[in-house]
Specification:
The chain has about 160 residues and is of the alpha+beta class. About 20% of the residues lie in helices and about 35% in strands. It is built from three helices and twelve strands. The longest helix has 15 residues. The radius of gyration is 16 Å and the shape is globular. About 15% of the residues are buried.
Length: about 160
């Protein structure tokens, strides 16, 4: 595919294999470009871990493949998001269940997007790196690369914590 953004212009469903290939190609192209800052917030509730990202307007991004099913809460904004076979345009507030096994791509429009992934966390783990290893297939770029840069420093904002 000459234009990796064509993933967002698809007018018909494609196979899961084709969609995955398009997401990976987009990811590779994006890693060659200047990176935008996406704020990540972590919230811990009893048995639940919420990871919220705040995505600036006009951003194109890819996520990591998820190892587990999870819930998504699109709190605000409009984003085109790849599914396993097509692209959906979602506007918050909106919630949905997301299956394991897929890497997604997103394209934000004129307003910032606030996107929260909600995961079961039965042992109430608060170690972000451990949670990432449980929840994602951590790529050699992106999450893993960022970990190497911060060398274990806790660079997350925790909010809404409750004492267990």
């Amino acid at each position: 595919m000459d234009n990796p953004l064509a993933i967002f212009e698809a007018t018909k469903e494609v196979s899961t294999i084709e969609m995955n290939a398009m997401v990976v190609q987009l990811q590779d192209r994006l890693m060659e470009m200047e990176q935008v800052e996406i704020v990540t917030l972590h919230k811990f509730l009893p048995g639940i871990y919420e990871r919220t990202i705040i995505i600036p307007p006009w951003t194109v991004l890819t996520g990591a493949e998820h190892r587990t099913a999870y819930k998504v809460r699109l709190e605000r904004g409009t984003i085109a998001v790849s599914t396993d076979t097509d692209v959906k345009i979602l506007t918050g507030p909106f919630e949905f269940d997301a299956p394991a096994g897929f890497q997604r791509a997103g394209r934000v429009f004129e307003d910032e997007v606030v996107w929260t992934d909600i995961y079961e966390n039965p042992d109430n783990c608060r170690n972000i790196e451990e949670l990432e290893n449980r929840l994602y297939v951590v790529p050699d770029i992106g999450l893993y690369e960022y970990r190497q840069l911060v060398k274990g420093e806790l660079l997350c904002q925790e909010f809404g914590q409750q004492q267990l």
